User: Fold this.
Amino acid sequence: MALAMIEAAERSGELRPGQTVVEASSGNTGIALAMVCAAKGYPLVIVMAEQFSVERRRLMRFLGARVVLTPAHLKGSGMVAKARELAQRHGWFWCRQFENEANAQAHARTTGPEIVEAFNGKPLDFVVLGAGTGGTLRGIGPVLRKFRPDTRLVVCEPDNAPLLAAGRHQDRAEDGSARDSHPDFRPHPMQGWTPDFIALHTELARSEGSLDRVLPVSGDEAIRCARELARREGVLAGITSGATVAGALQLLREHPGAHVLCLLPDTGERYLSTPLFEGIGQDMDAQEWDISRSSPTARFDAPPPRHRRRRRPCRRRWTSKPRPGCRRRWPTRKRRS
Assistant:
């Protein structure tokens, strides 16, 4: 999606060689844009609300991007407003991922057909995902309607921030971007899964008939499922992925035997400083100490064994110059007069 937005802007002439790219992102799109801009030689500025994880900031900066933070109380709509302001002030190219048509088109060309191909000749009852920018939802919806009309598309959202389920209208500016924060938004741990506004792509997907159901998921369930994914399946995913799996499990309880596809777009390394890793220490716990003490060597609680150095005797017999490194003094032969 990040590559598609940049290449579409290059073809249209909106993005000129060497021009700075700016975007508001909670981190996932920002990291992808940092990779693309590094490869193509564009300076990049990411605007991100300060409550999102520090790992995302460091990854983007590692890839050469500049990260401008906005106050947490301004939420996601605040970082979007700041990106718009910076683009207007400096003449930068603003990606506008929440409204950019290239976002949805990229998923219509890739993600949708990949799902159809992967389930060719196999049953697929539900596809479950979070709204995010709405690009995936709007992109794969028409593809599934055409090739898999029996598959239902389910969007999950935080149970304490029911933006879609509440049904309230999202106030928009002339360019389609959200004008203000949605009144039903409340803070939740699923970073980037549901911003404090309904993205234009998400609203269009709903009006175009791509959305079959909205499913609420709690933050506690999201974290629990993310941990279970790691410990039982070996899948290192973030809280948003855990939330999507939690929604899928809820569907399976309602429809036993159904075939469900979950889209998990993030990775767990971006959540090291979040509640997902709460209680995961960097020092050894009691059980690990017991394992360490179960064998005698390489232990922090035992002094290292003393090794006596054996000096190898110098085998050179009668000489006026001792062997290099030999500390033993040898008598020198007196010269006869």
About this structure: Residues 219 and 332 are 86 Å apart (CA to CA). The beta strands are 21-24, 44-49, 66-70, 93-94, 126-130, 152-158, 213-217, 260-262. The chain has a mean pLDDT of 90.
